[in-house]
Amino acid sequence: MVPATPARLGVLTSGGDAQGMNAAVRSAVRAALEVGAEVYGIYEGFQGIIEGGSLVRPFSWDSVGGVLQHGGTLLGTARSPDFVNREGRKKAVYNLIQLEINRLIVIGGDGSLTGAQVLREDWTSLVEELIAEGRLTPLQAEKHSFLAVAGLVGSIDNDMFGTDMTIGTDTALHRITEALDAITSTAASHQRAFVVEVMGHHCGYLALMGALASGADFALIPESPPNLDEWEEKMCSLLRSGREMGRRDSIVVVAEGAHDRHGKPISSGYVKDVLTRYLGEEARVTVLGHVQRGGSPSAYDRVLATLLGASAADAVLKARPGDEAVLIGIQNNKIVHKSLADCVAQTKEVNRCIHECDFEQAMQYRGKAYIDSFRILRTLIRANPRPPRPDQKRLRVAVITGGAPAPGMNAATRAMVRLLEDSGHIPLGVKRGCRGLINDDIQEMNWMSVNGWAPTGGAELGSSRKCPEGAELYAAAQSLERHQVDAIVMIGGWAGYHAIHRLYEERHNFPAFNIPLLCIPASINNNLPGSELSIGADTALNSIVEVVDKIKQSAVAFNRCFIVEVMGRYCGYLALMSAIATGAERVYLHEEGITLRDLERDIELLKQGFQQGKRLGLMIRNESANSFYTTPFIAALFDEEGGDLFEVRQSILGHLQQGGNPSPFDRILAARLAWEAVRRIEEMAQRHQAKGYAEVGAVCLGIQEGDVRSTPLYMVPRLMDAELQRPYEQWWMELRPVARMLAQPGPAYFRQAELGGEA
Ligand code: ATP
Ligand code: MG
Fold first, then answer.
1. Atom of ligand 1 nearest to the CA of 78
2. pLDDT per residue as tens digits for the range 701-718
């Protein structure tokens, strides 16, 4: 019998760096330590395994402290030409076995994961060679008969098959969107055209989503090149028609791997020449370059990387001899384990399709959300309204923003207006939420009336929590009749949903409400039924994370513990997600409640931590977590109990969470939901006309398992706790154990001799 092999795990980052790699390393290391495994950090990618020595070091809980907010990777990364050769990999196998590391987590791009797969495949034969050469003993070989491998995709390109998002993509999109917003304002001032080149050799994700998020006017991506003939002229005539409508700028986003249908590269310089030639105006080129890889990771990337890292540790520690290498990814908002070999092969297949100009197939591989986004972009940039389809009546659709303002409401309104016009309908803007309905403050809108709205925060139409009651219902019905409104779209939070539900309930009294009614979730609280995510929540999360990063810096200097209060009403989404993204050691949610015993235990843990050298404490509290144990109360209690060990400050973040320019994710979500809303409204109106139903459709749209789905409006009271204003079922509650495990070290931590401190 061979003695049980110790669970010893190596973690490395390889290939181009990507923001969020640190979060993945931190979480993988801590998750493994927590279950008693030994962990080694491998520096400089695969080269680190080949060279060994000081490039492979034992890691403790604190080796990965204080890294969440940093871009790049603490392990360093490299491209290793040696590793591509079998001889190089043989050295790697030798070193890993000498170190008794038989489980490996590789975080990198398609190349690195190919490397990991090749190492896994060659393992047995390389071990045999090493025995034949007398460098390994048969006993060693038997002990390390196989290598468990898990791959995480850390790459800003989002070009890997098997995962919807890769670590770093969302942050790169933040950088791109910030740059495009900035360029748009200067371009508009000078009436200039700009060509902006973004990264992506084989994958147009960043170019496409960047253009969609920033409201750019054209995008060139590798998977779907412009149609063959005279695309240059067609692109320019599209840009020209936008200009004729009154737009002052033209922005073309080009992926670095863009090419035409014959595979001939389209460079940003060429696009600039085209613009100058056909439009006769000054054009400038901006190549964003490595800025896209830089900066602090976004909230999404931190959370994603954290979940993937923990799952990877679990996967390699549970792996049995003979198990395939796995890729840990996210699909439809769920963590998935896939065969790494299959994902590597499929990724190559997509790249082959592009090289061989089979663009249809390449787009199919990218999936529905990608194809939809491309269609949406193409529609949004088309300035000329079209007549309705022959089988479709021209609809007059009222668009309302309701409830507390949520970043992204404007992007959603803009998309609604343009998509409605493009389908031949007439958009009507209702001012100040349902007040506009009651006071008859309703105006027709057009393509230009929403120009420049995509990047702005707040709600240009105005919003309110107003729900029509009594005589106001009559007034609202009259306005709808006067403007011959055929359908209502509410882009709003709980108050907006509530108001539309009210109209729905009053249909039997007011035939004017008997029209298609549709709600789009827009609330930073993310507390709406029928949707896993609402527009605005991602922006709020990023605002919180940005501030908490700063608070953490100030706290370290003073041995302080901060109690940070975040919004959400009775819904703990923002609190939990920001805790994961900032590494808070404790999160107080209304869903879980707070007891005196909890607080006592937290004080004990804080004291223990600070006594052992910890320098900062961070607790995040949902604003309504408990009406007695308020933020000032907890701060005072901890301060008093902390004595000389640490001091406590509170920070109530307040309305900064509702403001700010929407994140790229929220803008893209807004466009996706608006696109689907137009289709649903047409369907509902058609069904109504065809069958003359007394009862007309009334639905809430939302994202469920990665797709846009609708929930009947009558279900809302059954799905929501009306008093607490949150859905009975909240998917993110499942993430609590990971948050708890990573933030609060268990027995493993206290076993270690060395203790430092990070929240
Ligand atoms: P990104 O594309 O995001 O920058 P990447 O991981 O794709 O990252 P690459 O330079 O392609 O970056 O690969 C990184 C390293 O992975 C290479 O330097 C090499 O050591 C290893 N690697 C890549 N392809 C292979 C392969 N076919 N066989 C063995 N090792 C490989
Ligand atoms: Mg690559």
1. 18
2. 999 998 999 999 999 999
Rounded distance, CA 151 to CA 82, Å?
Answer: 20
Tell me: the pLDDT tens digits for 197-234? 999 999 999 999 999 999 999 999 999 998 867 899 98
Q: Ligand 2 centroid vs 256 CA: distance in angstroms? A: 13
Give catalytic residues, as residue numbers. Answer: 157
Structure tokens at 56: 């492979």
Do domains 169-292 and 396-535+664-728 share one topology? The answer is: yes
pTM comes to 0.95
pLDDT at 388 over 90: no
Distance between Cα 226 and ligand 2 center (Å): 25
Question: How confident is the prediction for the chain on average, in pLDDT?
Answer: 93
Q: Which CATH architecture has domain 8-166+297-331?
A: 3-Layer(aba) Sandwich (3.40)
Report which ligand 1 atom has the smallest distance to the Cα of 16: 4
Q: What is the pLDDT of residues 439-452, one digit of tens each?
A: 999 999 998 899 88
Q: Which of 19, 112, 152, 290 to mutate to test the pocket of ligand 1 (most atoms within 8 A of CB)?
A: 112
Nearest residue to 6 via CA among 40, 31, 41: 40
Paired sense of beta strands 720-721 and 726-727, if any? antiparallel
Q: Ligand 1, residue 82: give the atom nearest the CA.
A: 20
Q: How high is the pLDDT of residue 316?
A: 97
Q: Which CATH architecture has domain 539-660?
A: 3-Layer(aba) Sandwich (3.40)
Residue 250 sits at φ, ψ, to 5 deg, of -135, 125
pLDDT tens across 486-499, in order? 999 999 999 999 99
CB atoms within 10 A of CB 289: 12
Q: Which amino acid is at 499?
A: A
Are 221 and 255 in contact by the 8 Å Cβ rule? The answer is yes
CB 571 within 8 A of CB 725: yes
* Distance between Cα 552 and ligand 2 center (Å): 34
Q: What CA–CA distance (Å, rounded) separates 124 from 325?
A: 14
Query: Which residue CA neighbors atom 2 of ligand 1 most closely?
Result: 109
Task: Report CA-CA distances (Å) from 309 to 104, 299, 313.
Answer: 12, 15, 6
The pLDDT value given to residue 287: 97
**Which amino acids bring their CB within 6 angstroms of ligand 1?**
14-16, 46, 79-80, 83-84, 108-112, 114-115, 118, 155, 157
Break the chain into its structural domains and give their ranges: 8-166+297-331, 169-292, 396-535+664-728, 539-660
Going by pLDDT thresholds of 50, 70 and 90, the confidence category of residue 325 is very high
Mutate to test the pocket of ligand 1, among 79, 110, 152 (most ligand atoms within 8 A of CB): 79
Rounded CA separation 107/154 (Å): 5
Contact between 457 and 407 (Cβ < 8 Å):
yes
